Amino acid sequence: MDRIDEESQTPAPPVTFTGRKTLVAAAVAVVLIAGALLIRPARTDDDARPPEPSERAASAVGMGAPAAAVDLTALVADREKWLAAHPDDDASWAVLGSAYLEQARRTAESGWYPKAERALKRSLGIRPAEKGNFDAMTGMGALANARRDFGTARKWGELVRAQAPKRWGAYPVLVDAYTGLGDYKGAQKAMELLLDMRPGLAAYVRASQVYRDRGWREDAVVAMEHAAGAAKTPAEKAYALFRLGELSWERGDAAEALRQYEGALRTDPAQAEALGGRARALAALGRGGEAVRDYRMALGRSAMPQLARELGELLDALGRPQEARTQYEALTTMVARDSANGVDDAVLLGLYEADHADAVAAVRRLSQEWSRHKSVQVADALGWALHRSGDDTAALEYAKKATEPGLRSADFAYHRAMIEQGLGDEEAARRHLQEAMRTNPHFSPLRGPLAKQALASIAQPAPGGPENIRPTAPWVEPELPKAAKPKPTPSGR
To answer: What are the start and end residues of every segment in region (Disordered) (predicted)?
Structure first.
């Protein structure tokens, strides 16, 4: 015992690490860490397996991004099954409502909208907006935007922002709502806040939209390229490529648009919007038969009224009026279906009526729409309907509202030119017809050739410019007063 006491009082020698001791210590550390990992219970984020389809779709829906069709189907089935046993799960009702909304976007089947509304309202019934049910509130705003009820969408978005200013999901709703209402400054401000808070696919898509509306084409393309780079799934990538194709189309580059649309279809073959875009580009490149084929395939996948109108006008341009009439009838049927499900198709239907049916009815319809939504799209459509009904003086005021904010559209320029020609202002008509041809000479298979004919029929200005700015006499240098010489100052001062 005395020996032990002596040893206990003797100070221990300093520890020095030799190579051998270091290896031993490292081995002990590895064993301890491995033991801790074995003892700690597994967590869900430890799973190295790829996410299930329903998980992928739920993640996409939560981020406001497109989801693949099979993933959406799995998510809907999963949440419906869960809610059958857990009907008071407000979060799952919100997810299900957003999934229904994404189904409507992918399929262009507006029957999903009432289902989405019921699910989202069920979520809000369990957990009201006053208690911070932000997912359901954001879903209601996105649903209102999809139905083109932009005033209601703005209210939901602003309600979320008032309660949680840093919650980024409110801002995509607000960008879309302000754009639909014609508040382009508000849309730009909301977009900038979104980019600061959450740069990513949703933010870059909205940035591209805002830049396009301002007429900043290069910025719009760069933002959409960023969106494509931020895409994490084939569905997201395909959507970004489709939007890049739309930007190429609007600036008149049909070949580049075709390349982007085909890239979207290779990435996600179920992309009906990209198939419709490819049909539009093929028609512009003179491949009308292939374009008709693609339009019919796209409509078979998603019954979109806009595609029915485009196909009808292409068939008219190809000299097939009976087939065109069938498409116009299909358009009115689709619009009636959408209206029954709460969708506002006033602009599309008004443009169709102005060109192919009752222009006076189009004026009434679009005047009501203008009282709710003062966007450039509504202004253009109302101006065109007024022109087609014979009131060019009133039409010009709305055409100016459509063309002056900055959006560069061949359709808008053509409409304004025809209104100005109707008023006898050939100089202004020539200028806007030339703008339409520069912007996109293939903007419509029907109206594009008419624009070329109208431009050819307008007399060209006289050589040398208008007479009232030509000098009537040779220029003579004027006599200018000579500068006074400074007086010499007395010396000594």
So the answer is: 43-62, 460-493
Question: pLDDT class for 39, splitting at 50, 70, 90?
Answer: very low
How far is residue 451's CA from residue 352's CA, in Å, rounded to a whole number? Answer: 18
Check residue 491 and give its pLDDT.
58
Q: How confident is the model at residue 477 (pLDDT cuts 50, 70, 90)?
A: confident
Confidence at residue 22, expressed as pLDDT on a 0 to 100 scale: 46
Integer angstrom CA distances of residue 299 from 69, 228, 443: 17, 26, 20
pTM for the structure as a whole: 0.82
> Has residue 42 got a pLDDT over 70?
no
